[in-house]
Write a structure and sequence with these properties.
Blueprint: H1 10-23, H2 31-35, H3 37-56, H4 64-78
The structure holds zinc ion.
Length: about 80
């Protein structure tokens, strides 16, 4: 009585993809991925899209908040009383 004995359908695999990606598991080692040309092609497409998106996105700058937090931390360091 093993649930894993029956092959996964493409739909089931694709529904699990976000989970697999989020869990950090290697999709390349997934049995369905290894046996299914369709899903391999799909993932190759997805990777191409993700790569393109990464290149299109502007470089993320630290938010203003972060800088003021750093400034505050530095000031507190300088003003720390009774040093020495
Ligand atoms: Zn498939």
């Amino acid at each position: 009585m093993s649930e894993h004995s029956r092959p996964m359908s493409c739909l089931e695999f694709q529904e699990k993809l976000p989970e697999l990606i989020a869990s950090g598991e290697s999709i390349a080692h997934h049995p369905h991925y290894q046996n299914c040309e369709l899903c391999r092609a799909l993932l190759a497409d997805l990777e191409t899209i993700a790569e393109a998106a990464r290149q299109l996105l502007p470089v993320v700058e630290p938010p203003d908040d972060l800088w003021s937090q750093i400034e505050t931390a530095i000031r507190e360091e300088e003003n720390s009383p009774e040093k020495g």
